[in-house]
Amino acid sequence: MRVHNFAAGPAALPIEVLERAQSELTDFNGLGMSVMEISHRSKNFVAVASESEALLRELLGVPEGYTVLFLQGGATGQFAAIPMNLTSPGATVDYVNTGSWSKKAIAEAKKYADVRVIADEKDSNYSTTPAAESLVLTEGAAYLHYTANETIGGVEFPYVPDSGDVPLVADFSSTIMSRPVDVSAFGLIYAGAQKNLGPSGITVVIVRDDLVGHARPETPSVLDYAAMAGADSMLNTPPTFGWYLLGLNLQWIRDNGGLPGMEQRNERKARTLYDAIDTLDFYSNPVEPASRSWMNVPFLLADDSLDKEFLAQAGAAGLTNLSGHRSVGGMRASIYNATSQESVDALVSFLKEFERTHA
C-alpha cells in the first residue's frame, strides 16, 4: 500500500512516474537494458538529456540568453560554485538571511568573497521575510543572493527581490516548478532536484549567459559553469538515472497543466492545511501568514509531550515523514507537487481526530 508521504526531500514522486520507470527498468527503448546500463554518450541517453532540457525550458519559459546545466553536488555544492563563478577575489556580495539554508550559503560564500548580510530575520526567530523596501544593496555588489523557500523553517518569500542591475541569485530548491516564475528577473537560479524535480543526485542551474565564463582559475572543472556548459553537463559521468527520472517528472508536470496547473494544485493544498491548523485550537504554525511556505508547513502541538504519540499514530494511519527537522522540532508536512490533495485531506482528518481524543 502506498502511504501518504510528507517527506521534505528526497520527497514523494508521482506514482505515474514511478510506474513508468518500473515498466522501463529492464528494457529502455527496446534496448534490452536499463537506462542505468547505457553510456551517457549514447544517442539514446543524449536524447533523454536533450528532451529534458527542452521541456524544462518550455515549462519554465526560460528565455534566450540563459544556459541550463544539470550538475552534481546538490544546492550545497552551488553555495561554493556561485561565488567561484561570479566573483573575483575581494569582491563584495549581498545575502539575505532567512534561516538554516541561508546561513549555510552565507558561511560557504565567506570563503570566497566579502559577504554583506543586508537583511537578517533572526529577531523573529526566522519566522518572517524582510519587507521588500528594506533591502538596500551594497554599492558594487557582484550579486544578491536569497533563499526563496526555507525548507526547515517553512518560510517563503512572497515576492521576488528587486536587485536592479545587480544579478539576482536564488536558491529555488523547494519552489522550482511549483508555480510560474519570471526567469528573466534572475541572473542565476539553482535547485536540488529532490523536492519538485525528481530524485536526489542531480541539481539544475539556470544561469544568464553573461555570467558564464568568469570562473576563478582554481575553480574545479565540475563547478565551472563554462566547462560544464561546453560539455553539455557531461564533463564527467552524470547521474543518468536521476536525469532520466527528472525528464519523466517534467512530462508529468506538462501533462497535468504545466506550471499554472501546479500553482492551482499547490495553492489549494496549502490553503487546506493552513486553514485546518489555524482553525483547530490544538495546533499552531510559527510563521507569519505573509511568509508561509506553500511547500513546507511546520506546526506545533499545544502539548509537545504528545509529539511521539502523534507521530506513532500518524504512521499507523499511513501518514509518514511528519517529524520536524531535528534542529527545530515539532512537526512538518512537506506538500510538494507530487503530494496529492487526497493526502492533505487525510492529514487534516487525522489532525481533527487527534485533537478530539487528546485535547
From TrEMBL:
Gene Ontology MF terms: O-phospho-L-serine:2-oxoglutarate aminotransferase activity; pyridoxal phosphate binding
UniProt entry keywords in alphabetical sequence: Amino-acid biosynthesis, Aminotransferase, Cytoplasm, Pyridoxal phosphate, Pyridoxine biosynthesis, Serine biosynthesis, Transferase
TM regions (residue ranges): none
Modified positions (N6-(pyridoxal phosphate)lysine) in chain numbering: K195
Pathway the protein contributes to: Amino-acid biosynthesis; L-serine biosynthesis; L-serine from 3-phospho-D-glycerate: step 2/3; Cofactor biosynthesis; pyridoxine 5'-phosphate biosynthesis; pyridoxine 5'-phosphate from D-erythrose 4-phosphate: step 3/5
Residue sites binding pyridoxal 5'-phosphate per the record: A75, T76, W101, T151, D171, Q194, N236, T237
GO CC, any one term: cytoplasm
Subcellular location: Cytoplasm
Enzyme class of the recorded protein, top EC level: transferase
List of residues binding L-glutamate: R41
The record's free-text note on cofactor binding: Binds 1 pyridoxal phosphate per subunit.
Main location: cytoplasm
SUPFAM superfamilies in the cross-refs: PLP-dependent transferases (SSF53383)
UniProt EC number: 2.6.1.52
Classification via InterPro entries: Aminotrans_V_dom, Aminotrans_V_PyrdxlP_BS, Pser_aminoTfrase, PyrdxlP-dep_Trfase, PyrdxlP-dep_Trfase_major, PyrdxlP-dep_Trfase_small
PROSITE patterns tied to this protein: AA_TRANSFER_CLASS_5
Reported cofactor(s): pyridoxal 5'-phosphate
Subunit note: Homodimer.
Function: Catalyzes the reversible conversion of 3-phosphohydroxypyruvate to phosphoserine and of 3-hydroxy-2-oxo-4-phosphonooxybutanoate to phosphohydroxythreonine.
Family statement: Belongs to the class-V pyridoxal-phosphate-dependent aminotransferase family. SerC subfamily.
HAMAP family: SerC_aminotrans_5
Protein name: Phosphoserine aminotransferase
Taxonomic classification: Bacteria, Bacillati, Actinomycetota, Actinomycetes, Micrococcales
